[in-house]
Design a protein that fits this description.
Layout lengths: L3 H4 L8 H4 E7 L1 H4 L9 E6 L4 H4 L7 E5 L3 E6 H9 L3 H7 L6 E4 L1 H8 L9 H24 L22 H8 L7 H29 L2 H10 L3 H20 L8 H12 L6 H21 L8 H15 L5
Parallel strand pairs: 2-4
Antiparallel strand pairs: 1-2, 1-5, 3-4
Length: about 325
């Protein structure tokens, strides 16, 4: 792709387009799950000017773009850190099909050559946590969908709390860190404050959901009884996690038969009921537990190798190796 300057141009980031070493499709287009209404997502990696590495006045971690596509470009240093932690959205970028790589310099190719070194048993937790967050959203949306009237703005009185919080920030902080043993009365107040705060968060999430719901997606949700987009995402995450732990491989582009299944769920053309979704979640959670014990992946990646590779790439890029 020769038009990086046109794609990723901002007055405050004039250097960026020339610093990109890797750019790929991301999301539904990379999974093979895109439909007519799917937005194009792009993700990339750059090596910013040397001042961002040596000095402290200038800082750059990532840049986000909202144009005809959604784009994020990461500083290579941040990318390595997230990839070493098996962040799903980062790992996926390294394993997209070759046809979904839009630009890859010699430095980007060096990174791809060691992509398997980022994989570890952490995928059980990172991919699993992403999937679990989708499960929580599905359950919340289903509850709201069945009876929106249950969501009323919470009041402090409902939780037996005074009108104002009487516990200082110092007390709350000390209790969180278990630094001080407080009386039963104070601990009970802290517990109620947490319950009230959680209820407020859910109410705010409910208002956002109600306000920003895509009408077509809402209709699908009413039809099948759950959020098809979230369910298709959690299924994919569980499937990818089990594959990585079992085989040490990351398949971003999903198999054809699986794509038809997931697109059917996403678009509401499915006979899967909510109970089927929960049975799948429980089954895959158990499978991940077993695979974690038997997987040949290391518990953590070889950080020295990754760090040496990052240094080699950046030093060669800046032509600082004698």
């Amino acid at each position: 792709m020769n038009n990086l300057e046109q794609l990723f141009y901002r007055d405050d980031l004039k250097w960026l387009s020339k610093s990109i070493i890797y750019l790929c499709k991301y999301g539904s287009h990379a999974y093979g799950l895109n439909c007519e209404t799917s937005d194009l997502d792009l993700r990339g990696i750059c090596i910013p000017p040397v001042k961002f590495f040596i000095g402290y006045l200038d800082n750059f971690e990532q840049a986000e773009f909202k144009q005809d596509f959604d784009g994020v470009i990461y500083n290579i240093k941040k990318f390595f850190r997230l990839a070493a932690d098996c962040n799903p959205s980062i790992i996926e970028q390294l394993f997209v099909d070759e046809e979904d790589i839009l630009f890859c310099s010699e430095y980007g190719r060096k990174l791809l050559n060691i992509r398997h070194e980022f994989l570890s048993k952490k995928v059980k937790w990172t991919f699993g946590q992403y999937a679990s967050s989708q499960v929580k959203r599905v359950n919340a949306h289903r509850r709201w969908l069945r009876d929106e009237s249950i969501m009323q703005k919470p009041t402090r009185g409902q939780f037996g709390l005074p009108e104002q919080n009487v516990l200082s920030a110092e007390i709350r902080g000390a209790a969180e860190k278990l630094e001080v043993v407080f009386s039963d009365n104070i601990m009970e107040l802290l517990h109620r404050e947490k319950q009230y705060a959680a209820a407020c968060r859910e109410y705010e999430n409910f208002l956002t959901w109600k306000k920003e719901r895509n009408p077509k997606r809402a209709e699908i949700e009413r039809k099948i009884g759950y959020d098809g987009k979230h369910v298709s995402q959690l299924i994919r995450l569980y499937l990818m996690a089990t594959e990585i732990l079992r085989n040490g491989e990351v398949r971003v582009k999903r198999p054809v038969e699986e794509r038809e299944w997931l697109i059917g769920i996403k678009t509401g053309n499915t006979d899967w009921k909510f109970e089927d979704v929960m049975n799948f979640v429980n089954s895959k959670t158990e499978e991940l537990d077993k695979l974690y014990e038997t997987s040949n992946l290391p518990h953590t990646p070889n950080h020295k190798l990754l760090n040496d590779t990052l240094m080699d790439i950046t030093l060669n890029y800046y032509d600082l190796i004698n």
